[in-house]
Amino acid sequence: MVKYPPGQRLSVQPPLKIKGTSKENPSSLLLRLLLSVSPYYISGSILAERLKMSRVGVWARITKLREAGLFIEASQNKGYRLAAEPDRCNQELLEAWLHQIRSRCKVFVHNTLDSTNSEAERLLANGENDPFVVVSNHQSNGRGRLGRKWYSPKEGNIHISVAFRPNFNLIKLRTFTLWQGVCISELLRSFCTNESISIKWPNDLVIYGKKIAGMLTEASIDCEHVRTLIFGIGINLNSTSNRYPKSISRNSTSLKELYGQKIRTHEMTAKLIKTILKAYKKCLRGNSEKELIDNWEKLDALNEKIVEVSIGKEKIKGKALGINGDGNLKIKATNGRIRFLHSGEVTVSKW
Ligand code: BTN
Question: Is 107 found in the same domain as 65?
Answer without folding.
Answer: no
